[in-house]
Amino acid sequence: MLVFLCLKFTSPLYYNPLLPLDSKTMLNNQQVSLYLQQLQTLHPQAFKKNYLFYSQIKTKGMLNDLKEAIPWVLAAMIFISASISLGLYFKSHFPQWDDFQTKGVSVLIVMLFFMLIVPIIIKQIKHSSTHLYQQLRHTPIKIAILILLQAMNIAFIQSTLLQGVLFFLTLSFGFVKFYKENMFREETQNIDYYNLQQVRRICLWSYKQAIKTKFKLKTSKKGTDQYKTIEQQFRYFLDLHLQLIQYENKLCKTYKFIDLDSYMDSLM
User: Fold this and answer.
1) What share of residues in the chain are helix, strand, coil (percent, to 5)?
2) Highest mean pLDDT: which of 37-51, 53-67, 98-112?
3) Which of 12, 73, 224, 233 has its CA 20 to 30 A from that of 190?
C-alpha cells in the first residue's frame, strides 16, 4: 500500500494533472468543462459532499430579472418568520416585556445567528474565490455594528423604524449578498455559472486536503517512508489549491465585471 501511494504521488501524471493555466483557450467553456472532467477523473471525491454555502443564484449585471427577488422571498420566509415565532415565544414566557422588547430581542437573536454563520461562509469563500473574498471579507464587521445598534435601540431608542432598517440591512449583508452573486457579463451562459461553481468546489476541497495532510505530517515521524509520502501529498494538494484559486480568479475576470465602473462603462 505504501509503495502504491509513493508511485501515485510521484508520477508525472499525478503531479501535473492541470492544463496550462495561462492558456487563453482554458477560458472557453468547452475547455473549462474538459478541464473539470479531468479533475473529476483524478479526484472524484472532490465533488461529493463538498457543499458551498454561497452564490446559489448568479445574475447578469446589477438588477437583471425576477431572480433578484428570490433571495429576499427566502429571507422573508425563513428569517422574518423565525423572528415572529421568537416574538410570540418571548411574549408568552416573559410577560414583563413590552411589545417592542419582545420583537426587538427576536430580531437581535436572528442577527446574532448571522454573526455566527457568516464567518464560516467567509472562510469558505477565502479558500475558493479570491474575487468574492475581496468583496465580502468585511461583512462580519458590518453585522457586528448592526447588532450593537440594535442592542442600543432596544435599551434606549426603541424605534420601530430603526429596527426595521437594521433588520433589512442584516438580511442584505448576512443572507442576500451570499445567496446571490451578480455582475456577470451579458454573454455569460448557464454552463459558465456551473463550471465556475465547480472550480470553486474543488478549490475548497484541495485546501481541506492540504490542511489534513499537514496535520498528518506533524503527527508522523520524520525520516520515515510514511513521512515522505505524506509530505509529497501535502505539496501536491498545496500546489493544486494555489493553481486552482488563480484559475478561479481568471474565470471571474472573464465572466464578470471587475467593478461597478466597468459595468457602467458597458452600459454606455
Assistant:
1) 75, 5, 20
2) 98-112
3) 73
Percent above pLDDT 70 for the chain: 90
Sequence-separated (6 or more) residues with CB below 8 Å from residue 220: 226, 227, 230
Confidence of residue 21 (pLDDT cuts 50, 70, 90): very low
Tell me how long the chain is. 268
Residue 174 has a CB neighbour count (10 Å cut-off) of: 25
111-132: per-residue pLDDT in tens?
999 999 999 999 999 999 999 9
pTM over 0.85? The answer is yes
One-letter amino acid at 218 equals: K
Q: Tell me what pLDDT residue 64 has.
A: 66
Residue 258 pLDDT grade (very low, low, confident, very high; cuts 50, 70, 90):
confident
Answer whether 204's CB lies under 8 Å from 52's CB.
yes
Secondary structure of 53-112 as H, E, C letters: CCCCEEEECCCCCHHHHHHHHHHHHHHHHHHHHHHHHHHHHCCCCCHHHHHHHHHHHHHH
Distance CA 240, CA 3 (A): 22
Return phi, psi of residue 181, to 5°: -120, 120
Q: Is the Cβ–Cβ distance between 227 and 220 less than 8 Å? A: yes
What is the pLDDT of the chain when averaged over all its residues? 89
Compute CA distances 20 → 16, 67, 144, 254, whole Å: 10, 35, 43, 17
What DSSP character marks residue 256?
B
A 10 A CB-CB count for 84 gives 12
**Helices first, then strands: H and E counts in the chain:** 13, 2
